[in-house]
Amino acid sequence: MEYLQIKGIDKKCSRFIVGTANITDPDGPEEEFKKLDDAWEQGVNVFDAAHSYGAPRVGSTEIALGKWVKSRGIKREDIVITTKCGHPRYFDFNPFLSRGAVHAYDMESELNDSLCKWHTDYIDVLYLHRDDPNTSVAEIMETFNKFKKQGKVRVFGAANWQFDRIREANEYAEAHGLQGFGIVEEHYSLAEMFGDPFGQGSGSISGPQYAGMREYLKEKGLVCASYSALSGGFCTGRFTREQFEKDPESIWEGVRIGYCHPDNFTRIERAGELAKAKGLTIPQVCMAYTMSGGFEVLPIIGARNHEELMSTLSTLEIRLTRAECDWIDLSSDERPF
Asked: Mind listing the pLDDT tens digit for each residue in 30-48?
């Protein structure tokens, strides 16, 4: 395993993060716990959760994770806990009650709830799960820094935020002598996001339209935790152009809406050619691309079994050239091999 240092966290952070959104049983399903054990044994020590995970029993994920950490006797100084607050409240039975949750009182309430569920007195990285432009960056940054002063949070993050708001928030923090965002959680993948696969304002920095945000991350030294780094399985190559044209309903709706686009099919076809030439698999090439952007990227992974986990971790040994990356992401038509 490779590790890096995230500014503000006084422990090493693995280059991969375990995603936990699929854990919905608060009692801790043994099958899911074994997957966590497997990743932990391979040296992965960063775990990504959210206050809102676990639907329909919202909050179940963090309860289960707290039980896993406690049952395995994992020392707090050895694990990096990242979680999220501020997800909008959606009430299908009465849309009138639905509202945003990016306010100081929501942030504090959800943070304290997460601390209890994880059985800890601090969170390494706390993200705002979604943005609410109606809340000023001043309120957000002042609240985050209050948590920092209390010792409850080490690093602040923005998940699914737009570039302008991230920059505005960090400029406010800098102007007022405060700590700003040190990490973002966005979709970053070979596949560009052409539609919202989750329907709740999913954020992305993939593709040419987000080149400016990627340059900002490089310039400021911000880390990107990339969720759905294989784009819901699209970047495994198991969904083809022909399948989409003949039977689109056979493809999971999120993948169909988010990634099934002619440009993305071309990207995966080129990734397949490069994989064949290098003796690799398509997922390995796509994951290696994600980690070759010129800024620090920590892919969030959700391997279904040991074989998938080991295949993913093996990409640490794979290096793509700039010419190879440019060819598979359609920045260049000059074949590099």
From this structure: 889 999 999 999 999 999 9
For the entire predicted model, the pTM comes to 0.93
Q: Is residue 70 part of a domain?
A: yes
Q: How many domains does the chain have?
A: 1
Q: Closest Cα to residue 2, out of 299, 307, 306?
A: 299
Pair of tokens at residue 148:
């920092």
Among 228, 194, 226, residue whose Cα is nearest residue 209: 194
Per-residue pLDDT tens for 94-118? Answer: 555 566 779 999 999 999 999 999 9
Residue 336 included in any domain? no
What are the tokens at 72? 């395995």
The CA distance from 180 to 174, in Å, is: 7
- 104 in helix, strand or coil? helix
Q: Which domain holds residue 65?
A: 3-328
The domain spanning residue 315 has which CATH number? 3.20.20.100
